[in-house]
Sequence to fold (212 residues):
Amino acid sequence: MNRRHVCLLLAILIAGDLHADDFFDLRSANDVNEGTLNFLADPPATLFHHHQNRIHLTADSLASGWVRLEQCHDNLDKVARAQITFREGFVRDLKVESRSHIEDAWIEGPSVQLRNVATGARLCLSAETRALRNGGSGFYMLHNGPYMRKFLDGYYPMRVSIDVAYPEALLALVDITPAAQSGLKVIEEPGAISVDAVFEGELRTLIQFQQK
Fold:
C-alpha cells in the first residue's frame, strides 16, 4: 500500500511538566503494551480515553477523496500539554468546536494543541480529511488511524468509535478490516457502518466499498 495516499488520524499524548501519577495508573514495565494491537474483551473498570469519529462520505468524496469528519474525545488524560495531529496535506478546515476541563486549545498547522488538560476533559473537533482512496476498477478504500493512547514507550487502553455514513445509491460495502471479534464490534446498516473497539497498541481500520 502506498502510504502517501493514506490519511493518518493520529492521537498522541505528549507529557509536558507533570508527574507519572498525574497521568494515569501506570503499570509495571513488564505489563506495558509496546505497540502490538490487542483487543480487550474486558474493558478496564475505570474511565479511559474514548475517541469518537463521525465520517460522512458524499458523491463529491468519490472524485476528491475528501470526507467530512466530526471528532470528539472524552475522558482525556490529565496532562500539562497534549496534541492531536493529522497528516499534513490530508486535513483542511480543522476547527475546535467545543472543549471542557481544558485551559486552552488551538490549531497549529495540521494539529490541535492542548494546554492543562484536567481529569474528565472533553474536546470536539471538525475537519475535512482526505481519507478516501480510489483503488481503481470501481473500488474505494476508507483508511483511518493509527489510533493510540501512548505515554513514553507504553500503550494503554483506549476506546475508538467510528460511525461512517455513505451514499447507499452509489456505494456497496465490500469489507471491513479488522473483522469483528471480541473487543471489536461492527454494525452494518444500509448506508451506515459503526465500529467500536477497545484495545491497547495501534489500531488502523480499512473499510472497502465498490461503486454501484
Summary: The longest strand covers residues 111-130. Residues 1-30 have pLDDT under 50 and may be disordered. The CA atoms of residues 161 and 196 lie 4 Å apart.
